[in-house]
Design brief:
The protein is an alpha+beta fold and 391 residues long. The protein is built from 7 helices and 25 strands. The N terminus is likely disordered.
Length: 391
């Protein structure tokens, strides 16, 4: 093979193939053919006509795709190995660290002041007028040292308070037992400020770690309190301050077995503003009998709705005569007649009352008439009448 043939082959076949072909062409013959021509070499399979290059040089020169086809075939295994993405991705996913399960924070030791009621439990029924005795225990659960405590007990705002215009305060008495005996607290209810938090300063004590102190109390709810839920609260207060360290509450249920009730009421007649009052009759009854019963008659709107006591007339029929009563404003702002003013006719049990109510001028809001009863300070639920208003 001369130099010009080798030069043309070098343009088509890689150098390593050319070198191998050159060596084979120059080697010994076997049956008149060279080893390169008779053996299936890389040049004969990868490049068509490579074994007959001397006789067919033109096709090799005019095939431009031959170099790009041969080179990738020889180098494909080396170039595609790094591109085995799935295998690489699977290995990475397999070695991804798993999420650690959430760990619970270590439990904090109990601290502060613990408060426990004794003799007063959740849902306990309290009858108005009856004395209820109970005690409260304050315990220092702080292992780090001593605590000073001013013991305070009072009721929260009460849904059954008779007067709710400003503050819904339960009415009654509360006493605390000190070393010198029973001492009356300023009020049963907390009221609207923080003064109640200072009522335990004169009974303050110091508790060592784990030590406790129990204080006795007794309370009586007035008969004027309506049935409802009453929350009794006990506080641990820093002495000589109004700072409440912690508090505990007990929800009780106020009941009244002496409460009177409206048995029936007639339909009121039309009310003509400035001329004709509305007239109606109602019956009331009481578990304690009629001897202490008194009716209650109030307008269902507060005095702020454009009316005063001078604009309303209230009369009760006693025997065959009508008796007028002064119209005043109660603690809830209603205009009417206080039970103490009425000394109506007692016609057995139930007691029947006949009233008439007049208006001298038109109110700024719809008006109803609330009728009810009181018996020895116990108030019953009211029934509201709605007369037709005419002008």
């Amino acid at each position: 093979m001369n130099a010009s043939v080798i030069a043309r082959i070098a343009k088509i076949v890689p150098l390593a193939v050319v070198a191998a072909a050159g060596v084979a062409a120059c080697g010994p013959t076997n049956g008149g053919s060279s080893v390169a021509a008779s053996a299936p070499s890389v040049s004969s399979s990868a490049t068509p006509g490579a074994g007959a290059v001397p006789t067919t040089p033109a096709p090799a020169d005019t095939t431009p795709a031959a170099p790009t086809t041969a080179t990738p075939a020889a180098e494909a295994p080396a170039e595609q190995a790094p591109a085995a993405v799935p295998a690489k991705t699977d290995t990475k996913a397999a070695t991804k660290p798993t999420a650690k399960p959430p760990t619970k924070a270590p439990a904090k030791p109990a601290g502060g002041i613990g408060i426990t009621f004794n003799g007063l439990h959740q849902g306990q029924k309290i009858q108005v007028g009856n004395q209820v005795s109970f005690s409260v225990t304050w315990k220092n659960n702080d292992p780090s040292g001593t605590r000073s405590v001013a013991p305070v007990v009072a009721t929260q705002q009460y849904e059954g308070a008779q007067c709710q215009r400003i503050l819904a305060m339960a009415q009654g008495t509360l006493e605390r037992k000190d070393t010198s005996g029973w001492k009356a607290m300023p009020s049963l209810s907390q009221g609207g400020g923080t003064d109640y938090a200072g009522t335990g300063n004169d009974a303050a004590f110091t508790l060592a770690a784990g030590e406790s102190r129990t204080v006795e109390y007794r309370m009586v709810l007035d008969a004027s309190n309506q049935p409802g839920r009453l929350l009794v609260e006990a506080d641990a207060v820093t002495p000589s301050t109004y700072q409440v360290l912690t508090k505990g509450t007990v929800t009780t249920s106020v009941v009244d077995s002496h409460r009177p009730a409206v048995a029936s009421a007639s339909k009121p007649s039309p009310l003509v503003i400035g001329t004709t009052p509305t007239e109606f009759t109602f019956n009331i009854t009481s578990p304690d009998g009629p001897h202490r019963l008194r009716p209650t008659v109030y307008l269902s709107l507060p005095a702020s709705q454009g009316l005063t006591g001078q604009d309303v007339t209230v009369e009760a029929k006693i025997g065959n005569e009508w008796k007028s009563f002064e119209v005043t404003e109660d603690c809830n702002g209603r205009l009417g007649v206080a039970p103490a003013q009425l000394d109506g006719a007692m016609n057995g049990n139930p007691v029947t009352y006949t009233f008439r109510v007049g208006l001298k001028r038109t109110p700024t809001a719809p008006v109803g008439i609330e009728v009810g009863a009181a018996s020895d300070g116990h108030y019953g639920a009211v029934t509201t009448l709605h007369p037709t208003i005419q002008h």
